[in-house]
Amino acid sequence: MTVAIALSSALSALVLAIALVLPAINSPTVPFGVRVPAQRADDPAVVRQTRIYRGRVLLSGIVTAGVCVVIYAITSETLLLPLSVLVLVGFWYGCFFLANHEIRAAKAAGGWYDGVPTEWPPNLSARPSHWCSYRSA
Questions:
Q1: Which one of 5, 99, 104, 134 is CB 3.0 to 4.6 Å from 49, fit for a cystine?
Q2: How many CB atoms lie within 10 A of CB 123?
């Protein structure tokens, strides 16, 4: 019983830590999965959404832990403890989605790519020759 509580708590803490560090791990030009120009990486909208995301994730972790403690106190059932990890992952996804949506809206409203040269399709001629083993004669 104690092992189940310790493992569930450790796994929840690990998921929470990864969720909190995620914005720092990602590329600054792709916050929350939204491609932004390098000069807009420190835009107030991006910084604000990063702060709001971390607050939401931390609050959801605290709420999930509290609900988990209450459920365990009522039922004394250790099999329900891993549900807290799944609920926390669900909250994490929701927080990420909300931040993604807000940054996409700010990007569209601000015209972040107006006047920024973009290349599509990517220039494939710049690839090193060893990437392709087939060569025509």
A1: 99
A2: 8
Reported as a single tens digit per residue, the pLDDT across 25-75 is 988 889 999 988 888 888 899 999 999 999 999 999 999 989 888 888 898
CB 60 within 8 A of CB 91: yes
Tokens in use for 25? 């791990």
pLDDT at 83 (0 to 100): 86
CA atoms within 13 A on the CB side of 31: 31
Amino acid at 99: A
Helix, strand, coil share of the chain (percent; to 5): 70, 0, 30
Q: How far apart, in whole angstroms, are the C-alpha atoms of residue 43 and residue 35?
A: 13
pTM attached to this predicted model: 0.79
